[in-house]
C-alpha cells in the first residue's frame, strides 16, 4: 500500500528528535507513524511543505486555471500526481487557533482541483471523486487545547473543515483523526508512550 504523508511544520520533518528549541512533536508523531507503516509493509511518500517552499496562496493565474480544469504550477501538478498514486493520505500538522496551518489549507485549496481531483456534475449534488485508489484519509495532529474542550466548546472545527467539508464531500468515507493534546505538559516517559501507541496503531493499518 502506498501512503502519502503531507507534513506541515516550520521546523520540517527533520525535527523529530528531542532537541530543545529544534524539536517538533508533530515531527516525532510523523516519525512514529512512519515506523509503524514500514512495519506494516507500506511504501511511504513524504511531502514536506515547508522544506519544499510550498506557496499556499491561490494566485489569479491559479484560479483562472482552476476554473478551466487546469494547473499552471508544476509543484502543484507534482503533488497531484502523488495524491493520485496514494492508497492512503496522512496529513500531519499542529492545530493553531483551532484550525490547520496555512500551508495545509493551501494544499487543499490548490491541489484538490475541481475537474482533476473531483468533479461537481450539478450544483447541490454529490461530488464525483477521481482519486480511485484512495482508501482513506488520516489527520495526525497536536494541540495545546484539551481535546474534550476542542470538541464540546469549539465544535471540532478541524474535522468539520477537513473531513466533512472536504473529503467526505468528495465521497471519501474512511476518515480518521489522531490527536495528541498538550505534549509539553507531559513527562518524557508519557510522550514516549504516546509515540509508541501511534507507531503501533499505524503498524496495524
UniProtKB/TrEMBL annotation:
Keyword Transport: no
GO cellular component: cytosol
Domain Flavodoxin-like fold: 1-182
UniProt-recorded Gene Ontology molecular function terms: NAD(P)H dehydrogenase (quinone) activity
Gene3D superfamilies: 3.40.50.360
KW Hydrolase (keyword) present: no
Keyword terms: Oxidoreductase
Family, similarity comment: Belongs to the NAD(P)H dehydrogenase (quinone) family.
Protein's UniProt name: Putative NADPH-quinone reductase (Modulator of drug activity B)
Species of origin: Demequina mangrovi
Lineage: Bacteria, Bacillati, Actinomycetota, Actinomycetes, Micrococcales
Amino acid at each position: 500500500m502506498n501512503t502519502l504523508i503531507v507534513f506541515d511544520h516550520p521546523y520540517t520533518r527533520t525535527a523529530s528528535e528531542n532537541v530543545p528549541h529544534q524539536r517538533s512533536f508533530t515531527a516525532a508523531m510523523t516519525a512514529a507513524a512512519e515506523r509503524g507503516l514500514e512495519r506494516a509493509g507500506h511504501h511511504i511518500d513524504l511531502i514536506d511543505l515547508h522544506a519544499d517552499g510550498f506557496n499556499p496562496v491561490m494566485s489569479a493565474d491559479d484560479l483562472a486555471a482552476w476554473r478551466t480544469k487546469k494547473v499552471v504550477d508544476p509543484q502543484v501538478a507534482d503533488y497531484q500526481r502523488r495524491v493520485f498514486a496514494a492508497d492512503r493520505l496522512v496529513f500531519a500538522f499542529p492545530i493553531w487557533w483551532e484550525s490547520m496551518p496555512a500551508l495545509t489549507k493551501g494544499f487543499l485549496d490548490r491541489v484538490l482541483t475541481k475537474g482533476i481531483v473531483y468533479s461537481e456534475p450539478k450544483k447541490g449534488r454529490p461530488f464525483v471523486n477521481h482519486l480511485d485508489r484512495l482508501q482513506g484519509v488520516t489527520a495526525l495532529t497536536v494541540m495545546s487545547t484539551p481535546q474534550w474542550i476542542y470538541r464540546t466548546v469549539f465544535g471540532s472545527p478541524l474535522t468539520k473543515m477537513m473531513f466533512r467539508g472536504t473529503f467526505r464531500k468528495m465521497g471519501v468515507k474512511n476518515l480518521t483523526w489522531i490527536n495528541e493534546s498538550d505534549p509539553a505538559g507531559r513527562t518524557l516517559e508519557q510522550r514516549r508512550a504516546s509515540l509508541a501507541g501511534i507507531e503501533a496503531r499505524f503498524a496495524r493499518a
